[in-house]
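Lab meeting, item 3. Inverse folding demo.
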């Protein structure tokens, strides 16, 4: 399944999401969590207060965090 990465200006993409503005969220990465059968059972997100330009680095951090949680 696809991930979602917005490196900057995430609040402009979701103007009705007050939390993004309240917390000063600038960038976002989200990845569905799936079972081995492909069923989506949750969503893992990371939010950043500064712009993020290196999507691959964020994906690697996500993989490391998820690997450590299992």
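The presenter then showed the designed sequence:
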């Amino acid at each position: 399944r696809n991930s979602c990465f917005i490196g900057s200006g995430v609040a402009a993409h979701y103007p009705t999401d007050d939390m993004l503005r309240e917390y000063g969220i600038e960038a976002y990465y989200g990845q569905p969590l799936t079972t081995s059968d492909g069923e989506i059972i949750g969503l893992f997100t990371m939010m950043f207060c500064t712009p993020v330009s290196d999507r691959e680095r964020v994906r690697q951090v996500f993989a490391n965090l998820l690997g450590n949680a299992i």
